[in-house]
């Protein structure tokens, strides 16, 4: 369940930034298929990956978690 919420949140925030999966993946040193798997809830990210994602989205980990918990709309 958390993987699905994480994935939906990641996708919404990435799309809000106007970045493709390919460009987003390249900017954080990951493969596009891995980003796709994260967004579909098929993979669980490591803490290091979450950190990279937050840096690229220009938000703190706390802000990302607030989005994840629906305390903020992405």
Automatic annotation (TrEMBL):
Pfam families assigned to the protein according to its UniProt record, in alphabetical order: HTH_3
InterPro entries attached to this UniProt entry: Cro/C1-type_HTH, Lambda_DNA-bd_dom_sf, TransReg_Diox_bact_type
Top-rank taxon, per record: Bacteria
Domain HTH cro/C1-type positions: 10-64
Keyword NADP: no
One GO location term (cellular component): cytosol
Keyword Transcription regulation recorded: yes
Protein name, per record: Helix-turn-helix
Organism: Desulfotruncus arcticus DSM 17038
């Amino acid at each position: 369940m958390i993987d699905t919420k994480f994935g939906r949140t990641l996708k919404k925030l990435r799309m809000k930034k106007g970045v493709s999966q390919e460009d987003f993946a390249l900017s954080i040193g990951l493969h596009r298929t891995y980003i796709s798997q994260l967004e579909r809830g098929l993979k669980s990210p490591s803490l290091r990956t979450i950190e990279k994602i937050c840096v690229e989205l220009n938000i703190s980990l706390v802000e990302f978690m607030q989005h994840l918990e629906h305390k903020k709309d992405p």
